[in-house]
Amino acid sequence: MNKSLKIILRAITISIFCSNLWALNDGDGLQANQMSDAYSWDKQTRFTLERMAENLERTLKPWPVPDRTFKVEEYGAVSDGETVNTIAIQKAIDDCSANGGGVVLFSQGDYVTGTIDLKSGVMLEISKDSRILGSTNLKDYPDRVAKRKTVMDTHMDIRHSLIFAEGVERVGLRGPGTIDFRGTRENFPGKETIAKLPGRPFGMRFIDSKRVVVENIQLTNSPSWMQNYLNCEDLILQKINIVNHTNWNQDGLDLDGCYRVIVRDCFFNVYDDSMCIKGASLRPTEDILIENSTFYTKCNSLKIGTDTQGDFRRILARNLVLGGAPEGLPVFNNSPTESGITLATVDGGDVEDILITDVTINRAQCPIFLRVGSRGRLMPGMPKAPVGKLRRIVIENVKGHDNGQQGSFISGIKNGLVEDVVIRNVDLTMCGGVSKQPTCVRENEGGYPDAHQFENPLPAFGFWIRHARNIHFYDIRIAPQKNDIRPLFATGGNTKDLYLDGQPIPLSRDSGAN
């Protein structure tokens, strides 16, 4: 090859390289030598998730309820607030399903019931002037144990629910009336726990079911978790108003191993995890859209975890208000709210391709908590899974005020890093006031993945980072309201490729971990 041809080929190669680099840069202002792996996945992840959401909104619609009405009074129900109507209500449900489906109607008054089993084709409708009241007698809650064993059932021994459905299709509940589960500590006493819940029924439990619609309804006072959807497909959960502040373990909504779900236009004010996604079913949770909702809590507002045995993929959350309930709303316990956003894997599942955008976080001790651990909780006899991955996470357009002193947390473990994270456009205020620099953060490799399991305050008022790589921050504005000796960023070590506005973050190493 002659010299002139070599020069021409080199020029063409350089031109193509520069054109591709400019296209990747797309006006973001990064220099060529600062381009990182972030932009090899960030835009593709966003594109994939936005197309996923568009597809859900286009194809996932409420199932058409047949124009047939079965009034529970016609089956012997009495709406006097005292008579236990379980048998009459169940007859109406069974008859509705056997005749091709329709509406089982609660038209007026207060209907007391124990456990009822939803059947295919049945929509429970609670009218404006009516309520379903959960029985306060545990004898009215016979065992309803999932046929297919899961990690959660094994460890928590879940036996009781007010509303139960398993292996059904085209089912749901709608208001605008109320279900009051009457799950106060006086009616259903028990301790706060991450294990068994003896004598404390779940509110609603749907297992192995398809085409579920819950909408335009008021739910309050479950004895433990309010809603649990396990291995379900095609769920629409919208315009649900939940107040759950009368007992321990009062989650708002728990999705577990579910596929194709829309959660939108909801308001939850609960004691325990508010909007929570789990993996105890050992099956993937995929294609989830959560939007236009408020999730208040004393625990974690928007959470992936704690059970993370299955994988989590393609989850888009947008236009949310997170954190602690403002003054004037009911609360069960005055302890500080733990986190606004928690994304964690501690039982082997992978958490990947997550976009959280346009979020307000107020009154949270730890606004953002990202965690890889190695708890490894499984069913007895199962081998411990490899450490899961937490990667391709985008959190952006976050604002809020009155957040706590702890700071945000990003940490894996030595053999399981948090990787490929973009956090951009964050504008938060927090209380500040730390006058002595914290230096030591426990590893807690096998511990429970909640922010309160780690030091408060952390060694940074903004973000404390350890066992992580390819973490990219842009436009971070976090303002302590009182003078704070800590830096905006600090590291516990084992980090690589940490960037702020395209430049490497100059981090001083804190004194380590214990």
Concise overview:
The protein is built from 4 helices and 30 strands. The protein is mainly beta.
Explained architecture:
With 514 residues, the chain is mainly beta. It has two domains: 63-335, Single-stranded right-handed beta-helix, Pectin lyase-like (Pectate Lyase C-like, 3 Solenoid), CATH 2.160.20.10; 339-514, no CATH class. It contains four helices and 30 strands. The chain has a 30-stranded mixed sheet that branches. The longest helix has 23 residues, at 3-25.
What keyword list fits this structure?
about 525 residues; 30-stranded mixed β-sheet; elongated; disordered N terminus; mainly beta
CATH architecture of the largest domain: 3 Solenoid
User: Which strand-content bin applies to the residues?
Assistant: 35-45%
**Please, how many domains?**
2
Radius of gyration: 25 Å
CATH superfamily heading of the largest domain: Single-stranded right-handed beta-helix, Pectin lyase-like
Range of helix content: 10-25%
Span between termini? 62 Å
Poorly predicted residue ranges: 1-37
Q: CATH fold name of the largest domain, please? A: Pectate Lyase C-like
Highest-level CATH class of the largest domain: Mainly Beta
Please summarize the sheet with the most strands: 30 strands, mixed
Content-based structural category: mainly beta
Q: Say how many strands there are.
A: 30
